[in-house]
Amino acid sequence: MARRLSTAPIWLLLAALVVVSTLVRFGAALSVTPGWIVPDEVVYSQLGQSLWSDGTLEILSRPTPFYSLFYPALAGLPLRLGSVDQGLVVLRALQALVMSATAIPVYLWGRSLMARGWALAAAALTLALPGLAYSGLAMTEVLFFPVVVLALWAAAAALARPTLRAQQLLLGALALALGTRLQAVVLLPVLLTALASTLLSERSRASLLRFAPTLVPLVLAGLGLCAWLLVTGGPASRILGAYAPAGEGGYSLAESGYWILHYAADLLLLTGVVPLCALVLVAVAARRGPSAPPAMRAFVAVALSAVLWFTIEVGVFGSRHVENRLAERDLIGLAPVLFLGLCLWLDRGAPRPRWATVAVVAAAAALLVRLPVAALINREGVWDSFTLTAVDRVHGWIGAGPRAVVLAVGAAALAALVLVPRRARWTLFAGLLALLAGTSIAAGGEIATASRSERVASVGVERSWIDRATEEPVSFVVSAEVSSDSVWRSLFWNRRLDYVFDLPGGAVIGPMPQIPLGVAADGALVSGDPTVAPPQVAVASEVLRFAGRKLAQEPGTKLALWRLELPARMLEWVQGLQFTAELGDVPLLRQQAHLVEYGCPGGELRLGLQSLSSATTTLDVQKDDGTHLRTIRLGAREAQTFTIPVEEPRPPRAPACAIDVVSDTEVLVPRIELVRE
User: Residue 531: is it exposed, middle or buried by C-beta count within 10 angstroms (0-12/13-18/19+)?
Assistant: First the structure.
C-alpha cells in the first residue's frame, strides 16, 4: 500500500482529504443546533464577542473567571458578523476547517516516522473520528484538538533533536495549548515523563543539559507563580481560573482509580481498540530490536506518556466532577497520536512478539469486559461521549444490549490484531476507517436530534424571539420556575439581553453575572445593585405578572416579554407550580400553590383544574390569614374551571396578601389568576 501511494501526489491527496472532510463536517454541523451544551457554549460565545468588541473576556460586561483566550478569539469574530444565525454559519464552516486541518500536522509528524502512504493513512483515520462533530458546537474541543497534536509533535521533535529552535517551538506550543484550554496543564507531566524516559534510555546527562532552554523557563514560570500566590494569598488552585474547584482536593484514591480504568477502556473504544494496542506493541518491538531512530524513540516516549497522564487527569477529574457518564471529549486529542502509533506499527510490518501480544490483548479485553457500558450511557450528557452515543443508537437498531455491542466490536478488533496476516495488514486500516466512519454517522443523527429538541424546550421554536419582539435592551428576571438552561440559551440566541436579575429562590447555575431583585410589599421591584435600575423591559416566567404590557410570548417556553410601567412593579406571582416537558405548557400542582397578590385587591379567583388521579381529588382554597374560601372536589380525570370571590381586605389594608391552593394529589392547573375588580 505504502509503495503504491508513494508515487502519487501525496500533498494533493492530503489537500483533498482536508477539503472533503471540511465539506462533510460543515454539512453535518448545519444539522446540529449550537447553544446545546450549556453553559459552556454560551460562555465561549459571549467571551469571544466581548473580546472582539471591547478587548475584554467578560459576560454581560462583567468580569468572569478565565476559561480560554484563543478559542474565544477564534469564535468571537464570526459571531460578531451580521445576525446570530449568519455568524453561526460562518463559525461552523471555520470550525469544520480547523478540525479537519488537524490531518496536516498528523501527516507531517507521520512522514518523519514512516512511509508517506502510512502517514496519509493516519491522517485519514483522524478525519473519520466521531469527535469532529464538535465542528457544529461552540466548544474549545474544536481548537484544542489540533493544538494537542501540535504540542505533542513539538515535544517529540524537541526530544529527538533538542535544538534551540525546536525547544522554542515547544514552549510556544505549550503556551498555545494552555491559552486554549487549561486542561493542557497535563502536558507538563507528559513532557517531563517523556524526557525522563529518554534520559534513562540514553543514560547521558548531556541530554538533560541540552534540554535546559525548555526546563529553565518552565522552572522560572513555576517559581513566579509560587511567588505570586505567596504575595496575593489564597489557594494555589486559583491559577486554574474558572476550573479552580478541580484543584481543591477531595478526591478519593479508590474512586479515582475506578474511573481511570473506565477512561482507559473508553480510550480504547473511541479509537477502535487496535491503535492503542499497536502503540504498545511497537514500543515493545522498538526496545527489543535493533536501535530505533531518535524520532521513533521520541514518538513512543511522548505517545505513551500522553496516554498515561491524560487518562489519569481525566479519570481523577471525572471521579468528582462528571456524574454517571464518561467525558470522552477530554480524550479525543489523543486519537491522532494513537492512529500514528497504529500506522507506524503497520509500516514496520506489524510485529507481534508472542508474550507481549498476549499481555496487550488480555489487558485490553479486561478493560472492555469490566466497563459498565449501559450505566455510562447518559442521554442527558450525549455531548460528552459520541462513541457511547453511537453504541446506544446501534444497539437500538439491532436489538442487542450496549454491552454486547461493545464486546462484539472489541472481540473482532482484538482477533484482527492477532490473526490478520502481515501481507494483508492494510485491512486493519481499512476496517478501522470503516468503523470510525460508521460510528460518526450513527452518533451524528443522535447529536442533531438531541440538540434540536433541547433548544426548542428551552427557548422555543423561534429561538431569537426576544430580539424580534423589541429593539430595546432586555433584562431576564429569573424565578424558581425558570431553568438555568433557558436563561443561558436565551442569552446565546438573543443579543438584546443585558442584565440578569434573580428573584428570591431564583438563580442561574454557572458564571452568569446576576443581580438580586427584591419585591417590596406593594410589589415595587428593588435592584440589589444601586448602580443598576430595576428592569424596564423584561423576560420572565409566565407565572409572573407585572404592571405594564405584555409584548410577546413564545409558545412552549413558559416565558413572556413585558414592558413595565415605571416605577417597575409586580402585580402577581404564582409559586409552587412546576413545568415538565411531558405536560408541555400546562403547569403541575404537586401539593401547594401560593398565589401572591400585591396591593391585595378584591376580585375573582379564576382557577382551572384537571385531575390526574383515578380517584376523587380534594383541594382547599384559603387566604394566607387563614380565611377559608372554598373546598373543591374533582372526580377522576375531571377538568373544570372555578370562579371564587375574593373580598378586598378591610382597613388597615395590607400591601400584599396571598391565596393558597392545597391538593391531596397531583393536579394540572391550566389557569390560576386573580381578576381584579
Answer: exposed
Half-sphere exposure of 315 (CA within 13 A, CB side): 22
pLDDT digits (tens, 9 = 90+) for 509-549: 999 999 999 998 888 999 999 999 999 999 999 889 999 99
Query: Which ranges of 460-540 would DSSP assign to H, the alpha helix?
Result: 465-469, 484-493
The whole-angstrom separation of Cα 524 and Cα 527 is 10
Residue 538: beta bridge partners? Answer: 475, 562
Q: Helix or strand or coil: residue 593?
A: strand
**How would you classify residue 385: left for phi > 0, otherwise alpha for psi between -120 and 50, otherwise beta?**
beta
All three cell numbers of 528, joined, read 440589589
Closest CA to 443 of 319, 328, 582, 307: 328
Please state the three-class secondary structure of 331-346 as a single string: CHHHHHHHHHHHHHHH
What confidence tens digit (pLDDT) does each residue in 397-451 have? 777 788 999 999 999 999 999 999 999 999 999 999 999 999 999 888 888 888 7
| 518: exposed, middle or buried (Cβ count in 10 Å: 0-12, 13-18, 19+) | middle
The b-or-e profile of 352-380 (16+ CB within 10 A means b, else e) is beeebbeebbeebbebbeebebeebbbee
Query: Rounded to whole angstroms, how far apart are CA atoms 414 and 406?
Result: 12
Distance CA 657, CA 654 (A): 7
- Tell me which DSSP letter residue 595 carries: E
Distance of CA 486 to the CA centre of its chain: 16
Decide: 619 and 661 in contact? Cβ < 8 Å: yes
Q: How far apart are CA 189 and CA 187, in angstroms?
A: 6
Helix (H, G, I), strand (E, B) or coil at 392: helix
pLDDT tens per residue, range 78-132: 998 888 889 999 999 999 999 999 999 999 999 999 999 999 999 999 999 999 9
CA-CA-CA-CA dihedral for 95, 99, 102, 104, to nearest 10: -60
**Distance (Å) of CA 164 to CA 152, 161, 169, 170:** 17, 9, 9, 10
SS3 119: helix
Burial of 184 (0-12, 13-18, 19+ CB in 10 A): buried
CA distance 535 to 617: 40
Compute the distance between CA of residue 120 and CA of residue 105 in angstroms, rounded to an integer.
11
Query: Which residue type does 364 have?
Result: A
State the amino acid at position 592 in one-letter form. Q
* 539, 477 Cβ separation under 8 angstroms: yes
Length of the chain: 677
Interacting residues of 203 by C-beta distance below 8 A, sequence separation 6+: none
Task: For residue 563, list its beta bridge partners.
Answer: 537, 549
Helix (H) or strand (E) holding 631: strand 628-634
